[in-house]
Design goal:
- The complex is a heterodimer of chains A (597) and B (591).
- Chain A is α/β, with parallel strands linked by helices and 597 residues long.
- Chain A has 24 helices and 18 strands.
- In chain A, the strands form five sheets. In chain A, strands 7-8-6-5-9 form a five-stranded mixed beta sheet, sandwiched between helices. Chain A has a five-stranded mixed beta sheet with strand order 11-10-14-12-13. A four-stranded mixed beta sheet of chain A has the order 2-1-3-4, with helices on one face.
- Chain A is globular and about 85 Å long.
- Chain B folds into three domains: 89 residues, Ubiquitin-like (UB roll) (Roll), CATH 3.10.20.740; 115 residues, Alpha-Beta Plaits (2-Layer Sandwich); 359 residues, Rossmann fold.
- Chain B contains 20 helices and 18 strands.
- In chain B, strands 2-1-5-3-4 form a five-stranded mixed beta sheet, sandwiched between helices.
- Chain B starts with a strand and ends with a helix.
- Classes of the chains: A alpha/beta (597), B alpha/beta (591).
- Chains A and B meet through helix 17, helix 18 and helix 19 of A and helix 2 of B.
């Protein structure tokens, strides 16, 4: 093994890969060679660092220097200045917003300070395509411990004691789930991994698989040992090609090393793994639909009972956990349940990864102890809304979750607190909205997603979401009535209470929570026929302010429907009957003379 | 059987421990509405009409699939459950083309019945009255109108689970979900066997048979046509259901009276050609048995089964009897024997049958089904349901109809022919004749009870003149597939096999009166209907095909002997393998 003086870690997650991180790695290797440093400095492609907004990210160790938004042409500078001459390239460093100025080390940034990384512990640290690096960071140590020192019963007890709950959405206690499956009789059982991450904006599972696939493989083998299964399936969407590739590499390497497959670590325990690619249907994240899909059928949920722990995949006892849940398992075994359950709240233990998106500065992945408040996440870690806009609401749990208004920003992020205010933790999507977002439009957006993704099996979800969408559409067009709001709420409750599976049972959440917290905004749409945020095209009018317009004709020239008229150097006007409210004129006007009312 | 004690609407009952909430409620005398549920066939909890309150459960439960437990307290009629069902019904109605008065299922529609029961005064969503038809009609037997489909998936389940064909399923998703074939191919482009079981289970008017009655009316009105009708044995066992008679009522006499009043020039019984089938097929069997022919011999009466064999198990085509189906024999005999006897020009004879079957609509236009002067053997065939519609249209008072006999020219038949309508009936009829021919002795006991009953697969063996003859009977194509797989694998050996396309045989054919889900799920329709046929057989003087004077006369006057050249010309045909995906084959040719 070669010892090197510096490591250059380059993010190889999907986002940074799309921003040319492979080219950056190649360029580092070329430049290091040119400077004769190739034997002293090692370039490592890692998983995601989390701060995706600032990718591609390059971190240089041992200093921990954190370079952000690196381009291929910056590489030469970093090599020649930092790696050759030992001078940190100040211009390329990550710049914290506001007062902090330039931070040199990754771990001192506000983005990372409040985080506690367990599931993401190795993401951005190791090369996910090298099992040796994973092993150097304790991969398969917990599996060895379980197989040689613990009974299956003890393993389940540890997981139960840790308080770990399912990170996929429902928050069912993982240890209890394992216990049920272990108690089901029969020689054939299955361990499944839900990597069918489908919430718009959530990508923590993808990042784990891209950055630390062995954490999942190891946990599945532990689960197999705990419940008495020797076969596992990872159900992953085909839209995650990089994660699939890294999983395939990881499984091959793990088999080669004898930590997956027959007679693991010489203990006589067999556990094999297969990948199943999903076609990207949101409903296949629902456990019974996922299993139906693995079986080769159209991905649709089936009624429960029987529950998967009794009759799951191929009618055999099965456990299904999601990627992030599995990513916690080995850590809990290695550190003990107390190290895990000392974090979080009374009923929500440990950490949770959130995917920050929407109107927030630091878009990316954060892992925080359960019970951290929404305010800490949005303001401290996320850096608040860009351009000084006012925080209006946050949607947690993706399209299945609820909309949390600014007045509840101090709510702790844990299962119970979220449920109490009509939202869910869900898989951890967290979409921030500012004052420019129309809440009705947002509800319509999420509902359109679930309506489109409904599998079509049960009547309430298939037809109910469609009818709800029609009402929301009517409201955003300015044709809604107060009675429509009542019917919308009635329908939403009906779909929530009577649908067959979790998709339908949660699809109305965005509508119900926005009706609860933003009813005035709905009423503005139906009573005043106004969209306060100026988003709903059917309710706004574009106007030219006569005191600001100088008659430059820029707006008239860009208007695609010739709705703007006026002579040169004279005030222009917009014909509302022609205007399609596309916004081109506003973008073209340099004088702020066009407003939306 | 272990039992549990549960309370239904406050009433304590003891029910099987594997019962569902629906079954427990039924046992206590309460019907919970269902749309998608078909016991043992479609247990998917999808329509949500059966949501019911169970004390302590998280929410309402789907009664059709939710198991009972000791001490469970069920409230079938709570306000909460009622409201949920009514709202679900409203949603379903909002996407159902409402043209009830002009719908073929008017007054026999399960959705309509529920709408009435739940007092649906308005539908606040969608525009169900403005919806346009969404029709697929690519086969001779079936029309699908997806604008009336409520996606209960009963059709999908019977096609897959009972009939092994699985040629339909849900396509697309969400609100766009619709029933269709793979890649939205037409039904005519996939390996549909035309059995019509999907129609029988459709709760609404989304699936209906192709209506052939207007062609029959046209022929009846044509003074140049001599219009004759023949009825299949299974029709008399079910037609009464259309007029409110109890399931299992034999209405042969009224049926004949009604046909006379409709104006047919001859009202005959296809049972006569069923008897002919026994003689022809029996002869063929004995010939194969004694001359090392291909065995097992498999019956050929059911056109659904024939289509299944041609598409799914073509390797068994050499096993199939060369006999035409009784319907086709009937047509051929009408245009030859009967026309000759009455001195009619065969071209003027218009032959109609009333069948329990939709596959017959396919069969009448198959190749090699025209024995006389290049004329089709059969001109039209209508289902039991279509006959009922014709009777209703004429305003006949069913209850006042007298009992009449078939016309004598072609109306004498055996009890063996009558039981053709139930699974096992052809086998039993054949055994009555074949055993007597082989042994040369009269059978002491005519009932072959081992092949009776509604089990999917029945097996028996009989010592016939020193030879152990092994027989098997299967009905429904899933059962047929199981049986054929066994034979193929060498796990079972038979001499003679009866296969019927529909589960239970023709009494449960795809053209039979439609019984709603709540009857199908709790009443053994097949056994009741079969009972009507077996009772008729038991009471008949002639119970063996080869003893019927008319049959003897047909052979002596016209056909010669069973298996003769003339018999072959008129009564036999051949079958050939056909592709499982005719649509794809056609595409390949195009490219």
């Amino acid at each position: 093994m070669n010892f090197v003086r510096s490591h250059v870690l380059v993010c190889g997650g999907t986002g940074c890969t799309a921003s040319k991180s492979p080219e950056i790695i190649a360029e580092f290797n070329t430049q290091l060679k040119n400077c004769g440093l190739d034997s002293e400095v090692r370039v490592v492609q890692t998983g995601c660092f989390g701060l995706c907004a600032l990718g591609p990210i390059v971190v240089v160790y041992p200093e921990g220097t954190y370079y952000a938004q690196i381009k291929v042409e910056d590489v030469k500078t970093i090599v020649e200045e930092h790696l050759l001459k030992g001078r940190i390239v100040q211009d390329l460093l990550f710049k914290e917003a506001d007062a902090h100025g330039v931070e040199q080390s990754l771990n001192n940034t506000d983005f990372y300070l409040k985080q506690h990384r367990i599931a993401l512990r190795n993401c951005g640290v190791i090369n996910p395509e090298e099992i040796d690096e994973a092993i150097a960071f304790d991969a398969y140590k917990a599996l060895g411990t379980c197989l040689t020192e613990k009974t299956p019963q003890e393993v389940i007890e540890i997981i139960t004691e840790s308080g770990l709950r399912g990170r996929g959405g429902a928050g069912f206690p993982t240890g209890i789930k394992w216990k049920f499956a272990a108690a089901s009789p029969g020689p054939v059982k299955y361990v499944c991994c839900n990597a069918d991450e489908g919430d718009p904006g959530a990508f923590m599972d993808r990042s784990v698989l891209e950055g630390d696939p062995h954490a999942v493989l190891e946990a599945m083998a532990i689960a197999g040992y705990a419940i008495g299964a020797s076969q596992g399936y990872i159900y992953i969407r085909a839209e995650y090609p990089l994660a699939v590739k890294r999983l395939e590499i990881a499984i091959a390497q793990a088999k080669e090393y004898g930590v997956i497959g027959k007679n693991i670590l010489g203990t006589g325990f067999d556990f094999d793994l297969e990948i199943r690619l999903g076609a990207g249907a949101f409903v296949c994240g629902e456990e019974t639909a996922l299993m139906t899909s693995i079986e080769g059928h159209r991905g649709e949920p089936r009624p429960r009972p029987p529950f998967p722990a009794v009759k799951g995949l191929f009618q055999k006892p099965t456990i299904l956990n999601n990627v992030e849940t599995y990513a916690n398992i080995a850590w809990i075994i290695n550190h003990g349940p107390a190290a895990f359950n000392c974090m979080g709240t009374e009923k929500s233990k440990g950490t949770k990864v959130f995917a920050l998106g929407g109107k927030i500065k630091n878009t990316g992945l954060v892992e925080i102890p359960m019970g951290t408040t929404l305010r800490e996440v949005v303001e401290d870690i996320g850096g608040g809304c860009p351009d000084g806009k006012k925080f209006k609401a946050a949607q947690t749990g993706g399209p299945s979750g609820g909309c949390i208004p600014a007045s509840l920003i101090d709510t702790p992020l844990d299962y119970e607190s979220m449920a109490a205010i009509g939202s869910i933790i869900g898989s951890g999507g967290l979409i921030v909205m500012d004052e420019d977002n129309c809440i009705v439009d947002i509800a319509k957006f999420f509902l359109q997603f679930t309506m489109d993704e409904s599998c079509g099996k049960c009547s309430p979800c298939r037809i109910g979401t469609k009818r709800m969408y029609e009402i929301l559409d009517k409201i955003t067009q300015g044709k809604g009535t107060l009675e429509d709001l009542d019917i919308l709420e009635e329908l939403a409750l009906h779909v929530k209470e009577n649908s067959l599976c979790g998709l339908g049972q949660t699809a109305p959440n965005p509508v119900l929570s926005t009706l609860r917290y933003f009813r005035d905004e709905y009423e503005a749409h139906v009573v005043d026929k106004k969209c306060p945020a100026g988003v709903c095209k059917g309710l706004v009018e574009y106007k030219i302010l006569s005191d600001k317009c100088i008659g430059c004709t820029a707006c008239a020239r860009v208007c695609p429907v010739d709705a703007i008229s006026g002579k040169v150097k004279e005030v222009h006007s917009i014909d509302p009957s022609l205007c399609i409210k596309c916004g081109s004129c506003i973008a073209a006007c340099k004088f702020g003379a066009i407003i939306v009312e | 059987m272990s039992t549990v004690k549960v309370k239904v609407n406050g009433m304590q009952i003891e029910c099987p421990s594997d019962a569902t909430v629906l079954e427990a409620a039924r046992q206590a005398g309460f019907r919970i509405p269902t749309l998608c549920y078909l016991k043992g066939i479609n247990e998917i909890g999808a329509c949500r009409m059966c949501l019911t309150e169970v004390k302590g459960a998280k929410g309402l439960v789907a009664a059709c699939v939710y198991p009972v437990a000791e001490g469970m307290e069920i409230n079938t009629n709570s306000q909460k459950a009622y409201d949920a069902r009514k709202r679900t019904l409203e949603l379903i109605l909002s996407n159902h083309r409402m043209e009830c008065l002009t719908c073929v299922r008017n007054q026999s529609c399960e959705l309509q019945a529920l709408a009435e029961e739940y007092g649906m005064e308005e539908v606040r969503f969608g525009t169900p009255k403005e919806m346009q038809p969404d029709i697929e009609q690519s086969t001779p037997h079936l029309i699908r109108d997806n604008s009336k489909c409520i996606l209960c998936r009963r059709c999908v389940a019977v096609c897959k689970n009972l009939q092994h064909a699985a040629v339909i399923g849900p396509n697309d998703r969400g609100f766009s979900t619709h029933i269709g074939s793979a890649f939205d191919r037409d039904l005519g482009e996939v390996a549909c066997i035309n059995c019509g079981q999907c129609i029988n289970v459709c709760p609404t008017g989304a699936l209906t048979e192709v209506d052939s009655t207007y062609k029959v009316w046209e022929a009846l009105a044509d003074p140049k046509k001599h219009v004759v009708v023949g009825t299949a044995p299974a029709v008399r066992a079910t037609l009464g259901e259309e007029f409110g008679d109890p399931i299992g009522t034999n209405v042969q006499g009224k049926m004949v009276a009604a046909l006379h009043r409709l104006g047919f020039d001859g009202v005959f019984d296809v049972d006569v050609t069923a008897d002919l089938t026994i003689l022809e097929e029996g002869t063929e069997f004995i010939h194969r048995l004694q001359n090392g022919g291909t065995l097992p011999l498999i019956t050929s009466c059911s056109p659904g089964w024939i289509r299944f064999c041609e598409q799914y198990y073509p390797e068994f085509i050499p096993n199939i009897s060369s006999c035409k189906s009784p319907q086709q024999m009937f047509g051929a005999m009408m245009k030859s024997y009967y026309a000759d006897k009455l001195g009619l020009n065969p071209e003027d004879v218009f032959v109609v049958t009333v069948m329990p079957c939709t596959a017959k609509k396919f069969e009448i236009r198959r190749d090699d089904q025209s024995a006389v002067n290049g004329l089709w053997d059969m001109d039209e065939t209508i289902t039991t349901r279509e006959l009922a519609r014709m009777i209703r249209k004429t305003g006949m008072d069913w209850s006042a109809l007298p009992e009449e006999d078939f016309d004598p020219d072609f109306g004498e038949f055996s009890g063996a022919a009558v039981i053709f309508g139930a699974s096992g009936g052809v086998m039993e009829a054949a055994l009555r004749t074949v055993v007597e021919i082989l042994t040369g002795e009269e059978l002491a006991k005519l009932d072959f009870v081992d092949v009776r009953g509604m089990e999917g697969i029945k097996e028996a063996s009989y010592d016939v003149a020193g030879t152990l003859v092994k027989v098997a009977v299967a009905s429904g194509m899933e059962n047929a597939a199981k049986l054929l797989d066994k034979i193929k694998a060498g796990e079972a050996e038979y001499h003679f096999v009866e296969i019927m396309g529909c589960p239970g045989g023709c009494i449960n054919g795809g053209g039979q009166p439609i019984q709603p889900g709540n009857v199908r799920n709790f009443v053994d329709i097949q056994t009741l209907r079969a009972g009507a046929l077996y009772s008729e057989d038991a009471l008949m003087k002639m119970r063996k095909s080869h003893e019927v004077p008319l049959i003897k006369k047909i052979y002596s006057d016209y056909l010669g002997e069973p298996g003769s050249h003339r018999a072959h010309e008129l009564l036999h045909t051949s079958y050939k393998a056909s592709p499982k995906y005719p649509g794809l084959e056609a595409d390949k040719k195009k490219n």
